[in-house]
TrEMBL record:
Keywords: Cytochrome c-type biogenesis, Redox-active center. InterPro entries: Redoxin, Thioredoxin-like_sf, Thioredoxin_CS, Thioredoxin_domain, Thioredoxin_ResA/DsbE_sf. This is Thioredoxin. Pfam families: Redoxin. GO terms for cellular component: cell envelope. PANTHER family: PROTEIN DIPZ, THIOL:DISULFIDE INTERCHANGE PROTEIN DSBE. One of its GO terms (molecular function) is disulfide oxidoreductase activity. The keyword Ligase does not apply. One of its GO terms (biological process) is cytochrome complex assembly.
Length: 151
C-alpha cells in the first residue's frame, strides 16, 4: 500500500503513542522503539497464519536484532495469561504487547480497515511506514523486508 511520507510518519506516530499493555501487565512504552527499524506484527493465538509465521519472526529477531532491528508483536487476544503461555511454549523471544480493542483500532488507523490478521508493518528509523501487509509472509519475504529496513 503506497502512502505519502507525511501520512506514513503520522501513522507511525499513532503506533508510538498507543497505550498498550505488556505481557507482564505493565504499560508497554511503544515510544521506546521510535528511531529504530521496526517490524510490527499484529497477531492472535487463534489465527493459524499468525501462528505459522511467528517462528520466522523469532528467527528474524535473532538474526537482525544485534544490528538494531526489533520485531514487535501486538497480540489481539483477551487473555494475557494464555498469551504468555503461548509465547513460552513456542519460544517467542521478541517483545509482545497486548492490544485487543486498542490494537484493533490501531490496525484500522494504520491502514487495515478490515482489522484482518496477520497484519505486518515495516517502519524505518525515520518513522516512515515502508510496508503494510495483510496476510501471512513467507520466510524470504521477511528477510527481504528486514534487509530493506537495515539499509
Amino acid at each position: 500500500m503506497a502512502c505519502s511520507a507525511a501520512a506514513a510518519a503520522a501513522d507511525a506516530d499513532a503506533l508510538f503513542a498507543a497505550a498498550l499493555t505488556g505481557t507482564d501487565g505493565r504499560p508497554a512504552a511503544l515510544a521506546e522503539y521510535r528511531g529504530k527499524p521496526l517490524l510490527v506484527n499484529f497477531w492472535a493465538r487463534w489465527c493459524p497464519p499468525c501462528r505459522s509465521e511467528m517462528p520466522e519472526l523469532a528467527a528474524l529477531q535473532a538474526e537482525y536484532g544485534a544490528q538494531g532491528l526489533t520485531v514487535l508483536g501486538i497480540a489481539i487476544d483477551d487473555d494475557p495469561v494464555a498469551v504468555r503461555e503461548f509465547l513460552a511454549a513456542y519460544d517467542i523471544g521478541y517483545p509482545v504487547a497486548l492490544g485487543r480493542d486498542t490494537g484493533i483500532g490501531l490496525m484500522q488507523s494504520l491502514g487495515n480497515a478490515s482489522a484482518g490478521l496477520p497484519f505486518t508493518l515495516a517502519i524505518d528509523r525515520e518513522g516512515g511506514v515502508l510496508l503494510r501487509k495483510l496476510g501471512a509472509f513467507g520466510k524470504d519475504d521477511f528477510h527481504g523486508v528486514a534487509q530493506e529496513l537495515m539499509r
